[in-house]
Each structure stands twice: as structure tokens, then as C-alpha cells.
Amino acid sequence: MNNYEMMFIVKATMEADQVKATAEGMKNIVTAEGGKVVELKELGEKKLAYPIKKEINGYYFVMTVEATKEAEAELNRKAGLDENILRHLIIKLDEE
Question: How, if at all, do strands 2-11 and 85-92 pair?
Fold first, then answer.
């Protein structure tokens, strides 16, 4: 199992419960693939540096997970397909 950190931005024009449901959906993808969510931080709504898909604000989330390479690939794929997620980035954390 590897440690990964994922940051994703969710559309701010949605209702608050839809934003939470999108974040929970990302957590469910990790657990369904046999991974473990170590931490999920909600950084709140922030103004984007530039418009993305005609959105000027977004809800930022940072999620730390322990998962296999296959689970990381599936998480990356599903985040790319989700229309509510404006941007996402997954990085592999160094082994300590």
C-alpha cells in the first residue's frame, strides 16, 4: 500500500449537501477499491485563480489515503469523469 494525497475542487454553485456527497463519493471509491482514507480536510470555498468551466469559486478538499496503485488509478479516472469536480491532483507521498 502506498500513501497518496489528493486535492480536488468541487463546484461552488451546488447545494452544500451535494458538495458533501461529492466528497463522500471520493472516499467511497477508495474504500471500495480496498484502500483506507487517513484524513479528509475541507478547506472551504475559495476564489479560483482563473475561471474553470465558467466557475469562479470552488470548494477545496484535501484527502490523504493509503491505497494500491490500481485504487489510485481508479480514483483518478472517476474524478476525471465526475462533472462536479473542476480539477483534481493526486501525488504519491514519500515513504518515511
Answer: antiparallel
Q: Where are the domains of the chain?
A: 2-92
Q: Fill in the amino acid letter for 8.
A: F
As a CATH number, domain 2-92 is 3.30.70.60
Alpha helices by DSSP H, the chain: 16-32, 69-81
In whole angstroms, what is the distance from residue 77 CA to residue 96 CA?
A: 27
Residue 70 vs residues 2, 4, 5, 32, 49: alpha-carbon distances, Å: 11, 12, 15, 12, 32
Query: Which burial class, exposed, middle or buried, applies to 81 when counting CB atoms under 10 A from its CB (0-12, 13-18, 19+)?
Result: exposed
How far apart are alpha carbons 15 and 34 in whole angstroms? 30
- Dihedral over Cα of 82, 79, 88, 17: its sign: positive
pTM of the model: 0.89
With a cut of 90, say whether residue 94 has pLDDT above it: no
